[in-house]
Structures are given as structure tokens and as C-alpha cells.
Amino acid sequence: MLVFVIPLKSAKVSNSWERVTQLFERCIKSVCNQTSPNFHVIVVCHEKPKIEFTHSHITYLTVDFSPPNETNPVAKGDTDKGRKILKGLIYAQQFSPTHTMAIDADDCVSKKLAQFIQQHPDSDGWVINKGYKYQEGSKYVYIKRRNFYKMCGSCNIIRYDLNYLPESAEYNRGYGYYRYYIDHGKVRDILENKGKAIKSLPFPGAVYILDTGENLFDNSKRLKFNIFNRKLLNQSVKDEFGLYNLQQSQNICQV
What we know:
By secondary structure, the chain is α/β, with parallel strands linked by helices. It is built from seven helices and twelve strands. It starts with a strand and ends with a helix.
């Protein structure tokens, strides 16, 4: 079984909780659109978002540790993300996962992931080397042909034991304690140094959503797109990744 872990930022540190909720709802719909029922989703949050979408494979895990404060908000936010991923990974044990995948709460993923993992239960894992970039409202997606995992946090599918979870997890530590769960671009090299060479996923696995106004890091510099990597956001892409325009969806709901 593949267990997805989604760390959701707190309403107290969001620029717009409404926007965060919209992005998250699209993300969770995408994750739950798997072609195989052999998956579960753990959402780790301070406040449970109010969305209409429900699914029997979702667990909301609320935490009581303090959200980030305004002093060095990026570092604090990163640590908060690491705490939540660790919390979710430990909680995932009860579902007996073969693999886990951390998902940023605004990204979308391929509906083929759970089925693929089900077919390779003993593999050490995969990195998403190839994926898509998308700017909200665009008619296009842009293929990132390599090193997608160095750009987007929704990128590592790891055999459960290779998460190297601490025997007694602590949630009041600093950034360094959670680094393995945060530094997504370094996981492949870390595992390779341990003799666990995880592979590249053989298909585009995720869509990196850019410039939402709620990204932990400013990724607007990654909006420079190569026209030769451009692909129309057609129905096939929408169906596989559950990707839809939030503004259009909001307008439809208001009609």
C-alpha cells in the first residue's frame, strides 16, 4: 500500500486561508483519484480545512504543537512542515504501507501512482525525475524533463523502512532534526550513499503548482518557461492529474 502524507500549513500563518483551502481541495481530489484503491492519505494539520470533498481513504491528523511565528517565517515554516511529515509518517504505520510519499498541499499527482507501487512492493523507491510545471490560470503545462525532484517537494516515493523514523519522535526540535524529511532534492543521494539506489519513476508523476501566493518559498523565478516544453492542458492531462483551473471552478460554483 502507498500512503500519502500531506502537511498543511496553519490558517494562522496563511496569507489567505480560503486560498490555501482551495489549493488543498484540488490536491486531495487529485491524490484520491488513484486507479487502485490500495492507498491512504494522511493530512497533518493544525486546523481541519472545510471542504466539500470527502473520501474514505483520508485521515485528518491534527497537531497541537505551535505553528510558525513571524520570526524567520521561512525557516520556521520549513520546520513546521518537517514536524508534520514526521508525524504523518509515524501515524502511517498502522496502515502497513509498503511505501510512503510526502505531497505538498498545493500540488497534483498522477492517478497511476498507487497502481504502480502495488506492482512493485519490494522496490526501495523512486524519485520523480520528470514532471510538469503549471501556473494558475494558464492554458498550458510545461514538462520538466529531468531533475523535477530537485524543484518540487512532491517527488519521493520511499519504501517505508527507508524513512529512518526515530524510535521516539520529538516535535520540539530545530530544522536539522527534520532535514531528511524536508530536503527532498537530497534524498536520492542520501539513500544512494546508504546503498539504496532508488530509481526514476518511468512516467511523469506530479504537477508542481507555481506562484500560488502561499508557497513556502518564492518560486516565481521558476516561471521562466521554454516554449518547446509547452503542452496544452488537455483533457488527458486534467484527467490523469486532477488538474483544473481554480478561478474557473469558483466561477462555476457562483453561477
